[in-house]
Write the structure tokens for this entry.
Amino acid sequence: MNKLIVLIIILLATNHLQAQQYDTIWLSSLDISKATLGWGKAGADVSCMGNPISLNGVIYKKGFGTHASSVLYLKLAGGSAKFHAIAGIDDEEKASSGSAVFKIYGNHGLLWQSAVLRSGGAGAAVDINISAIDTLILCTETTADGPNYDHTDWADAYFLVKGRQPISIDRPMEPGVIMTPAAPLSPRINGPKIYGARPGNNFLFRIAATGERPMTFSANGLPAGLKLDSHTGIIHGKINTAGTCVVMLTARNNKGNISRKLTLVCGDQIALTPPLGWNSWNCFAGAVDQQKVKAAADAMVNSGLADHGWSYINIDDCWMVKPDSKDSILGGEVRDANDNMNTNKKFPDMKVLTDYVHGLGLKTGIYSGPGPKTCAGFTACYQHEEKDAKRFAEWGFDYLKYDWCDYERIAKDHSLPELKKPYLVMKDALGKAQRDIVYSLCQYGMGDVWEWGAEAGGNCWRTTGDITDDWTSMETIGFGQAGHEVFAGPGHWNDPDMLVVGKVGWGPELHPTRLTPNEQYTHISLWSLLASPLLIGCDMTQLDEFTYSLLTNDEVLDINQDPLGKQASRMVQNGSLEIWAKDLEDGSKAIGLFNRGLFPAQVTVSWGDLKLSGTYTVRNVWAQSDEGRFDKEYSAPVPAHGVKLLRIYR
Ligand code: GLA
């Protein structure tokens, strides 16, 4: 036999042998439901929208369809030799502007990273040796243009395996360590230090105080027209003349007494600090009813949350009649003979409900919208604005969330005058209602609402779409607030949507938040730094200890409620590490050291980053303890997706 032929036979045989030694395991054959996605559904051999995987005109039979930001953890245990895939943005969003970066980590190190890949562009091939890898992490990350249309595919993705087969695993979840120290038995006064009310309107303020009961209260310097119930700490009445006064509040119990100043500003402005409360949507959504709202009010008081300053109990969508509904509970006449809006049968008596909530010293909110219907298809205010505002005031509501949704059918376009119009109409209607009603604009940030929300009468305005209880949603929304700080201040706040800690679920079924404990610390710390309205989104009758600790740290809440009313700015952005800082009334600064990455990192803030110099006392806000005096800088380890929240003093 000729030598060449012998060589070819030997080569073919070796190749055959090698091919036999490796199994091809398609990534899509693993349990990819363990992946976390920014939107849509993890697709086995399909995109996140369920279409065939298609990159740059090429259809792939195999692959893993995701949406940035996405993460999938895989356990290889050294059994896989190679990972292959074509990374790219699916053609189903070719006409849009999706863009993302693909990353692969192995044993805590970055193994591979794509350039920024864009809709309609070529995919990037990845072929990496993973024989020494135990845990492999496939990630897709959004870029500066945000998560919209980032339909990220790992096309043609497979492992060459010899021995241990790869399996997908849950992302690691650290235990929820409680950092908030328990409040002492001696009295402590919490909540806002400044409070705005309008002359001639009903006034209600519950002194928030922790400590052993019974407790008695006194208030020195209350303006004429206000009365304090010394047993409950509830102040009510009417202030008839505009002006500012400083009231000295005192709380007393067997263990001692404490006094604190409260500045009362009687004028045009309300919501001088961001509203603190609860809203029914993130837990109950359409399953809300009068009993649940009453139970929420009871829970806010009985759990002790109200003693930390939480005060609004807000009903979201689905309390009104649903036009044309055959359901005997939801359907019926949408308005009465006098054109007043009716409730559905789940809310038999709004006045009884608001009286109940007010009796506890809490305030209460309602929801509607400028369109004919609400987002969930219930009756809204279109062409009845004045009547409805009057009705909300007569019922005794103190907060109105006004949601664009169905007004989309009415608006001619998204020009600024069209976006503003319905909000100005309700502003005028509320102006005539003679009640202090916090006006919350909800239109998801259209037309850069932060630039004109205050002018449209808003005490706060949603800057984004709806939040959900996952890391991508929360981090994209929260960290996406950078730059909006110039538009926030006392009486007018940016609102990055409600909290997603505790048991949420958009009803009727609830589940514990899918945020990890560190992500929850990030959520509460960031929202506090952002001077955002804080609306608890969970079922308060089912508060666990960890969630309770997140919501009752007075030093954290003080940052949110600081009378100066500044929203934090992003001072440093270094890859996944960010430093945010908020100026506070006493000259100190609140600082968040954030780690948005998948692995723990050391984060250093230099005083120069904050335009400061010299020596500062650094306080660990969650632990409520000083870390010492630091010259020039402070450095601390920050867990993955976690935060270290500081306050620094001269
Ligand atoms: C919109 C809002 C949510 C909630 C629902 C109610 O989606 O953004 O916060 O109010 O409507 O239908």
User: Anything to note?
Assistant: The CA atoms of residues 195 and 264 lie 5 Å apart. The chain has a mean pLDDT of 95.
